[in-house]
């Protein structure tokens, strides 16, 4: 079952709060997950289908490009039917920011690197102020204002922050302060330092992301390194994984990261599995995949463990709500570390599902209380037997060497 949130020890940096539609960003609100549609925004039905898929995968806010008049017109139809707030992504043309606001979007993202005329920026900020809409100042290392890049000798952390501060000053000239800021780079180290610097400079909510991170798995690793490092330091109010992949993968990755850091409550399955080793009595990778597939459609918010052996499995995964550990052709089903049932090896996944459904209906204590008589003793006997036969030799090296010799001879 869901435990109280256990977060990293760092104290979340205090930021002012703003509202993107009905979703709060910053302050003491939960860190939110964003993604961006990849459809043409003028394709209203296609874009809405993607927005619904993203919402189902756990995003809080979706961004759509507003790159031409047809896109702005599309937004006018998309916004009222969207289940989550919509942010219009604006580059180059300030008029499209005005058009997007007219279309009813909940927020804008402006790129200070390619909308540079002060009067245009101030006009958009004034209009946003009048409408009560927030703006994200979205600095991107790849499209940094050339004069700032020249002044700082490239897209350094200081250059990215300077670009954001210049935009913020222009906003300030028209009394507009309702903004969040991003300073993204595809270089993870630059991105981390830029956000650290920015967080010391302003108290606006920060939108974290590693831009152009690329396809998974490298894109996932880079994004997690950058976003995760900052969140663990208490920096960041909203996040986006920028993957070269279906945006639903971005949503899932963001959700998983926040749940792993204890920044959002777990809402689905958390499958943990041992990496397997020489003690494994089954093919752990295969069983874990089967369990994942079986659980995925059921939306059961439990932490489930698949462990390769009964020697260490139940002990190592005692914090899990539920788990299975293999031993001598049997699966030892355990709940919060208590062995409650022993099942044939080929019924391990089915037994996990059945127990999970019982936990959801009756509660963990009830399932522990109804443990099969003798299950714990049987598991302990197998554990002791395996331990005795394998000893401290986790890779069972002696018997492997013996078998190798038989093969080679
Ligand atoms: S000792 Fe057992 S539970 Fe631990 S990694 Fe090896 S097989 Fe898995």
Features:
8-stranded parallel beta sheet; alpha/beta; 17% strand; Sulfite Reductase Hemoprotein, domain 1; 44% helix; 5-stranded mixed beta sheet; 15 helices; 15 strands; 2 domains; TIM Barrel; 409 residues; binds iron/sulfur cluster
Task: Give a written overview of the molecule.
The structure is a single chain. The protein folds into two domains: 18-260, TIM Barrel (Alpha-Beta Barrel), CATH 3.20.20; 270-390, Sulfite Reductase Hemoprotein, domain 1 (2-Layer Sandwich). 44% of the residues lie in helices and 17% in strands. It is built from 15 helices and 15 strands. Helix 3 links the parallel strand 5 (86-90) and strand 6. Helix 10 crosses helix 12 (348-362). The chain is elongated and about 80 Å long. The termini are far apart. The relative contact order is 0.09. Iron/sulfur cluster (SF4) binds at residues 274-277, 279-280, 307-309, 311-313, 316.
